[in-house]
Design brief:
The chain is mostly helical. It is 52% helix and 8% strand. A hairpin with a 4-residue loop joins strand 3 and strand 4.
């Protein structure tokens, strides 16, 4: 029995793959801010956020800049949110307050939010017409739950 376990362990070790990272740990996240480093001639994440917010109606822009919400694994990169906020401060119009938030569980936050919205839409669609509309559901769901302040939220994956 022990010989069989030892052989199984050896086979597992042989099939295991390891990827050793050095400067790649820092170079890969840098591409999000400077895609031209790898010959992608487009704006980085901060420029793309500003472009997206500026495409919104004027009355939403202040709320969008004030509620940038990072989700997904990239939000866990050390210093990512702080650097993005500093970069946005230099690019956004000066009259807007820029705030970048990261929820506690940034990896599943967007999924949980979508799940909540889908449940409320189903509830509204099954309810009598007088009880609410899809617009009301979205207005209730798009709340900055990180700080408990209502308003528009720009979610970055």
């Amino acid at each position: 029995m022990k010989e069989e376990e030892r052989r199984r362990w050896e086979l597992e070790e042989e099939s295991r793959q390891a990827l050793i990272l050095s400067v790649e740990r820092f170079a890969a996240p840098e591409i999000l801010f400077r895609p031209d480093d790898i010959r992608l001639y487009q704006g980085g994440i901060a420029e793309t956020i500003v472009q997206s917010v500026e495409a919104c109606p004027d009355y939403l822009r202040a709320a969008m800049y004030h509620n940038v919400l990072l989700t997904g694994g990239n939000a866990r990169i050390p210093g990512f949110a702080r650097r993005l906020e500093r970069k946005l401060l230099t690019l956004a119009p000066t009259q807007h307050v820029v705030r970048v938030c990261v929820p506690e569980d940034s990896v599943t936050y967007a999924w949980r939010g979508a799940q909540q919205i889908s449940r409320q839409i189903v509830t509204v669609s099954n309810a009598p017409a007088a009880s609410g509309s899809t617009v009301e559901v979205f207005r209730k769901c798009f709340v900055d739950r990180v700080h408990g302040r209502p308003g528009a939220v720009l979610v970055i994956y």
